[in-house]
Amino acid sequence: MSELSENAKQVIAEHLPRYPSKQAVTLPALHVVQQERRYVSNKAMEEIAELLELSPAQISDTASFYGFFRTEDNPLGQKRIWVCRSLPCMLRGGEELLAALCEKYHIVPGQTTADGKLTIELAECLGACDGAPCILLEDELHLRCSLEDVERIANEPNAPNKKA
Ligand code: FES
Description:
The structure is a single chain. The chain has 2 domains: about 5-65, Orthogonal Bundle (Arc Repressor Mutant, subunit A), CATH 1.10.10; about 80-155, Glutaredoxin, CATH 3.40.30.10. It is elongated, with a radius of gyration of 17 Å. By secondary structure, the chain is α+β, with helices and mostly antiparallel strands. The chain has helices spanning about 5-15, 25-35, 40-50, 55-65, 85-105, 145-155; strands at about 80-85, 120-125, 135, 140. Strands 2-1-3-4 form a 4-stranded mixed β-sheet, covered by helices on one side. The protein has 6 helices and 4 strands; from the N terminus they run H-H-H-H-E-H-E-E-E-H. FE2/S2 (inorganic) cluster binds near residues 84, 86, 88, 89 and 126.
């Protein structure tokens, strides 16, 4: 049985004409799989390699280089929140926000809650220092976040929360 869904295969195939080589589709393909499954298994890497006519080692090298992709024994939660840990955010409440999040959800950065709902990660400057403290929900930037804001974001990931 295939590890990649038909949808994932189709989305990866749609990327092919947009890139100069099949190898260049490696990162987008990894993103497609992780977005869908919340991790990229060895079998998924083998199947991506087959689709892109590369070796599984090439896919694995790319996946492990970035530190962004999770393995099946350490999957992402349903929502991934990145807390900015660079100085401007830390000086404007980010440090307290991070501590409160870790205390509330009983995890440390890099971990996922026991119910699999939330992963907290540390990010370097998100390029929005004037909105400190900042977080990313997946790839969506949220500015001037309080603990209450993040709790709401964690529970309603599609709810608008930008306070730019
Ligand atoms: S320091 Fe957090 S966005 Fe720049």
